[in-house]
Amino acid sequence: MSDREGDLELALSRHNLGDHRFGGPAPTRAGGREVITVPACTIDGIVGRLPTPAAEAISLVWIDVQGHEGHVFNGGAELFSRGLPVVAEVWPHGIVRSGMELDQFCRIAQRYWASYWVWRRSQRYVQYSITELPSSARSSAPPARMTT
User: What is the pLDDT of residues 41-53, one digit of tens each?
Assistant: First the structure.
């Protein structure tokens, strides 16, 4: 999933099948990653091809694309404007590595959601206003699960 239809380069992880990454303009080959070309599509494109009852039944979106989340948000304007809850990883380093600035990512999220939730081990999920996302994203070192 991305913000456009077409081919993208994907850097593969040899050790973790959940850590393949789109690298933005120039995928990283750091760590000896093999880079392959894969077809990309948008969420709106996929949802648009579903039968109407199936498309209307979507009630949650789960996104974990190693920093490429903002691009997926951009490719889902129609779907996300419905205000659906989304679970997404917010990994500042990965967002920047994917070719998107943190402030741009935050503006995209603010377009669709008024608040977000962060898992805090001691307190469980804590809700924040979406206006706090820019400072939260800048201070976040490890990936955090964000639920809108």
Answer: 999 999 999 999 9
